[in-house]
Queue: 2 jobs
Job 1
Amino acid sequence: MKRETLKYIRALSLAPVTALYLVSAAAQAPTAPSAVPSASMSQGHLQKGTGGSGNMKQAMMMGMDSMQKMQVSGDIDKDFAMMMKMHHQQAVDMAQMELANGKSPEMKAMAKQIIAAQKKEIARFDRWLAKQK
């Protein structure tokens, strides 16, 4: 697979996450805690921590880092499935933080919908990837 194509796939898969990160960082900058959990903390720990936007930002950054470090296989379909699975899992993790710490009933309801939808898609990616081995 051409190097340019792989760069395009990476950029395309990271675009929504990067946009969300930038918006979140700008919105939370004045109120973000001065200390955020270290990158070595599990996302489960982040969900049980202080529950602030700093934790959500850290979880998002960890997810972006995982996608950037993923070794591409050269098979565009497989790489798409693997990257999208990571992307969807990150959405689930963020939605779970909202459920645990959010105050808005509307946002909590949306978080529940996101979790249900993304878990279904993750399962589809898992099934497809299992057939590729």
Job 2
Amino acid sequence: MKEHNYFVYILASKRNGTLYTGVTNDLARRIWEHRTGYIKGFTDKYNVKTLVWFEHHISVEAAITREKRIKRWRRSWKLDLIETANRQWNDLYEGLIAA
């Protein structure tokens, strides 16, 4: 079985601001789409463009299951998840495009 790359990610409008959880097979492209407003919707409407957390999965099923689980979480749990990995709420997108 060939391994693939899938990502679950969280975007924020600002520290402790509006959050959006998504899944994609191309993280850099998808975050670019959110940042530029290429695809209209929630993130464009609420200016949710800062990549504050993501994780890698090798199966689409695992990624989708994780995304759905996180979407059902309490907000405080999402904030804890972000702050465990990214205490300063840095924009992780810059590291994606530099790599």
